[in-house]
């Protein structure tokens, strides 16, 4: 492992366990669409997709057509839905690769229908209803008419209708209103004799807090990756951990009191100590805003970050940790011994969301896929390493 400057250990057994737990949660009659957009939140879309499909997922959700095509070219043929908008230039690719698009307008309906006719194909589509997100999707009244137009088209097939919950963590009452409005729209469409195979609304937060949001398809993202979106801890729901972000010590230096560290002299040592230089920085995804505020783990103990996090390097004070050597493994996110640096805690400290941190992992960060064995989801040393790849 330590041949890399910095790497992310992705524990696929954690991904598997979290998927299986969602399967138990929703039961056999509800389909699971796992969200693998943004390269599976920075974890690697292809290995994650293969793992979730082997452990209970039925469909995949991506952010755009390029992500869907990458899955297809990796041999993943499971039903794949583009959760966002598509543009006109993508339509041909979407149809030829048998990718489900999301409908947001009558204009896109016409473009899809025309291209499907030219290709002599029938395209399965989902309609997004805006019930309070205010980003993508048509109004409830428009959704009913859009569904009617899809049903009339010989080249389009209505496979699903969905909505996006804007406040499942912070506002359960508003979420219930969204769900009620969405159900009303779907009932009206089916009242016209139009079948809707899939109704879906639940993200991770709603999946574990609003049974009414399950309908017959759920769209988990955060939980799959071992992330609490903000309402699981209060329910004592703990997903299996998945990601460890690591580096190693590249250089050690003993410095006296009064030594300034890094750009702009933002930290000056108060006493004699030892500094470790780590070959990882904000270009690799470690947050600049944790300069002089964050910690890393070295030999199972916390070491404070000193000075500004730079593009390629950061420094940690290891003066109180005995036996530290060049080449020692350093944990930036995850567990080492009895200590853990939680992704959620880091995000809270710099007022962002956990997904921001995982999606920010840079191109230099090697993804190493680890199978820790059936009894170990803690990412402790000793797991079996499966083929590694780099984004």
Which runs of at least 5 residues are low in confidence (pLDDT < 50)? 373-391
The helical percent reads 25-40%
SSE class: alpha/beta
Apparent shape = elongated
Total helical elements: 11
Biggest β-sheet strands, sense, barrel: 11 strands, mixed
Mean pLDDT: 93
Instruction: Please state roughly what percent of the residues sit in beta strands, choosing from under 5%, 5-15%, 15-25%, 25-35%, 35-45% or over 45%.
Output: 25-35%
Distance between the termini: 17 Å
Q: Tell me the radius of gyration.
A: 24 Å
Structure description:
There is one protein chain. The protein is α/β, with parallel strands linked by helices and 391 residues long. The protein is built from 11 helices and 21 strands. It has helices spanning 12-26, 37-41, 45-54, 65-73, 91-96, 106-119, 140-152, 172-191, 204-207, 343-349, 354-359, and strands at 6-11, 31-35, 59-62, 80-82, 102-103, 123-129, 156-163, 198-200, 217-218, 243-248, 251-255, 260-261, 267-268, 273-278, 295-298, 301-306, 314-317, 329-336, 339-341, 366-371, 384-389. Helix 1 (12-26) packs across helix 3 and helix 7 (140-152) packs parallel to helix 8. It is elongated, with a radius of gyration of 24 Å.
């Amino acid at each position: 492992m330590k041949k890399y400057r910095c790497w992310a250990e992705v524990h696929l057994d954690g991904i598997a366990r979290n998927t299986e737990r969602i399967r138990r949660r929703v039961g056999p009659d509800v389909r699971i669409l796992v969200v693998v957009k943004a390269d599976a939140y920075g974890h690697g879309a292809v290995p994650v997709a293969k793992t979730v499909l082997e452990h209970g997922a039925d469909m995949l959700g991506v952010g755009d057509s390029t992500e869907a095509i990458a899955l297809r070219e990796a041999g993943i043929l499971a039903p794949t839905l583009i959760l966002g908008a598509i543009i006109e230039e993508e339509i041909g690719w979407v149809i030829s690769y048998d990718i489900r698009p999301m409908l947001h307008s009558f204009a896109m309906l016409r473009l899809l229908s025309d291209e499907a006719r030219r290709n002599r194909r029938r395209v399965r589509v989902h309609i997004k209803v805006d019930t309070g997100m205010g980003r993508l999707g048509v109004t409830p009244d428009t959704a009913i008419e859009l569904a009617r137009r899809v049903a009339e088209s010989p080249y389009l097939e209505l496979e699903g209708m969905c909505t996006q919950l804007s406040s499942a963590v912070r506002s359960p009452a508003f979420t219930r209103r969204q769900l009620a409005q969405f159900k009303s729209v779907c009932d009206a469409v089916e009242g016209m004799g139009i079948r809707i195979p899939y109704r879906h609304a639940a993200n991770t937060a709603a999946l574990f807090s609003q049974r009414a949001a399950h309908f017959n398809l759920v769209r988990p993202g955060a939980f799959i990756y071992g992330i609490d979106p903000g309402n699981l801890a209060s329910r004592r729901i703990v997903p299996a951990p998945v990601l460890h972000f690591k580096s190693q010590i590249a250089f050690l230096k003993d410095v006296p009191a009064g030594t300034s560290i890094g750009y702009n002299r933002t930290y000056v040592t108060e006493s004699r100590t030892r500094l470790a230089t780590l070959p990882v920085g904000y270009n690799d995804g470690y947050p600049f805003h944790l300069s002089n505020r964050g910690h890393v783990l070295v030999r199972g103990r916390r070491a404070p970050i000193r000075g500004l996090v730079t593009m390629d390097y950061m420094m940690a004070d290891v003066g109180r940790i005995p036996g530290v050597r060049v080449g020692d493994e350093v944990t930036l996110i995850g567990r080492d011994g009895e200590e853990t640096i939680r992704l959620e805690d880091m995000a809270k400290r710099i007022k962002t969301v956990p997904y921001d941190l995982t999606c920010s992992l840079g191109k230099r960060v090697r993804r190493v896929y680890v199978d820790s064995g059936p009894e170990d989801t803690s990412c402790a040393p000793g797991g079996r390493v499966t083929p590694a790849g780099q984004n």
